[in-house]
Amino acid sequence: MTTYRWRIVVLLFVATTINYLDRQVISLLKPTLETVFNWTETDYSHIVMAFQAAYAFSYVVFGRLIDTIGTKMGYAIAVSVWSIAAMMHGLATSTFGFGVYRALLGLGEGGNFPAAIKTVAEWFPRKERALATGIFNSGTNIGAVVAPILVPWVLGAYGWQMAFVLTGLVGFIWLVFWWMSYENPQRHKKLSSEELVYITSDAESTTGESIPWLNLLKYRQTWAFVLGKLFTDPVWWFFLFWLPSYFASSFNLDLKKPSLPLIFVYTAATLGSVGGGYLSGYFIRRGWTINRSRKTAMLLYALCIVPIVLTRYATSIWEVVGLLSLAVAAHQAWSANLFTLVSDMFPKNAVSSVVGLGGMAGSLGGLAFPIVVGALLDTYKAQGDITIGYNYLFLLCGSAYILAWLCIHFFAPKLKPVESIER
Predict the structure, then answer these.
(1) How far apart are CA 143 and CA 251, in angstroms?
(2) Major facilitator superfamily (MFS) profile domain spans which residues (predicted)?
(3) I need a surface site. Which of 108, 125, 144, 386 has the fewest CB within 10 A?
């Protein structure tokens, strides 16, 4: 048996890494851009919201598009759009311009996860999907690890404009490898017959017309995924866009230099993503049901995020790094399993559309949360202690996952697969 399917995961991992590298650049340049453009925390939150609104819309559009035209072409379109948008940030001359280019970036980047999750559903049996998802999803953290090393160096050597341009160019290199390497398993010339039999061992249908996403809203399983994303995605957006400035304001971290605390935090997230995907698969191999395996793992991860509320009592930056590392690792482990629930419950020709709906919900939550973040931080910044604002935000983050787990269990108590869906 060959292992060609893992080469596909490598492509997904690299694309996800580029996706998060491109979106992370602005958070690391935030102190510089605040000086250049006189941004307040509210100004920055509006730029983040422009990205989130476009990202939410893009999730639904690409979810439907990828189920219609296929993964290969859909993914290529998404990467092309977001790479061009990333480079265009270097042309911005105003806060409004940044908002426009962030929106365009969001329109492209929303295609990454619908395409990647559908690819995993096409290329892996159920018992390996959480692990495969965890591996490619760890690219979200590798991008966040690479950015604190790469961006300050480019900023110092070439200026903030080139930081956007150079990171945007990387996506076009990936496109070449994607177009040369990817095809549906049933038509792939390099795939052995033994591996194809293994991939299709779950006897799931890989054919059928794409399904209108409005029809998917009739099912409780859809709402289990949608609410899971709605309550927890905003926490990850907060970690991604505000952690650098949190360390800068609370611990005087110099973001113009490679940031070791940020590297530690996002490296922990990488380990959580892969390890979290492995754990539920291990339970399945031990004979547990999919329902028991996924939910036990996800409950453990939800509980691991609760200690983030203790950051208010930390007395050193490394105590905070430890708490945040545990939280982001648990989030990525949670995310790997949450995405896998879609292919556990839905036929393959509906996976991308359901992921699109959930991604839209998560992005809308991420659109609303910056309003709270910006208001809290500006209020306590004006009072001379912005750290208090962060303490309240960590309290909200720590409780979100328990609520999300309860919603998933209520709407999909047994993770029962949807056998047929009306078109």
Answers:
(1) 23
(2) 8-416
(3) 125
Residues ≥6 apart with Cβ < 8 Å to 193: none
Residue 204 confidence class, pLDDT cut points 50, 70, 90: low
Predicted pLDDT at 213: 65
φ, ψ for residue 208 (rounded to 5)? 120, 155
The Cα angle at residue 303 between residues 375 and 136, in degrees rounded to 5 = 85
Residue-averaged pLDDT of the chain: 85
Q: Are 20 and 331 in contact (CB under 8 A)?
A: no
Q: Which CATH fold would you assign to the domain 4-411?
A: Growth Hormone; Chain: A; (1.20.1250)
Query: For 356-371, b where at least 16 C-beta lie within 10 A, e where not — what string?
Result: bbbbbbbbbbbbebbe
Taking only the tens place, the pLDDT of each residue in 282-331 is 898 888 999 999 999 999 999 999 999 898 888 888 999 999 999 999 99
The closest alpha carbon to 232, from 141, 130, 325, 336, belongs to 336
Query: 1: pLDDT confidence band, cut at 50, 70 and 90?
Result: low
The residues, ordered by sequence, that sit 6+ positions from 73 with a Cβ below 8 Å of its Cβ are none
Rounded to whole angstroms, the Cα distance separating 273 from 387 reads 28
Residues 6+ apart with CB under 8 A from 191: 2, 4, 185
Q: Which amino acid is at 274?
A: V
Label residue 36 by pLDDT band (50, 70, 90).
confident
Is pLDDT of 207 > 70?
A: no
DSSP 8-class letter at 124: S
Taking only the tens place, the pLDDT of each residue in 69-120 is: 888 999 999 999 999 999 999 888 888 888 899 999 999 998 998 899 889 9
User: Residues 190, 381: contact at Cβ < 8 Å?
Assistant: no
The answer for residues whose C-beta is within 8 angstroms of residue 28's C-beta and 6 or more apart is 147, 148, 151, 152, 244, 255, 259
Count of other CB atoms within 10 angstroms of residue 9: 22
Question: Which of the four pLDDT bands, split at 50, 70 and 90, describes residue 414?
Answer: very high
Task: Please state the pTM of the whole predicted model.
Answer: 0.72
| Residue positions counted in the chain | 423
DSSP state letters, 211-270? --HHHHTT-HHHHHHHHHHHHHHHHHHHHHHHHHHHHHHHH---TTS--HHHHHHHHHHH
- Nearest CA to 47 among 244, 240, 241? 241
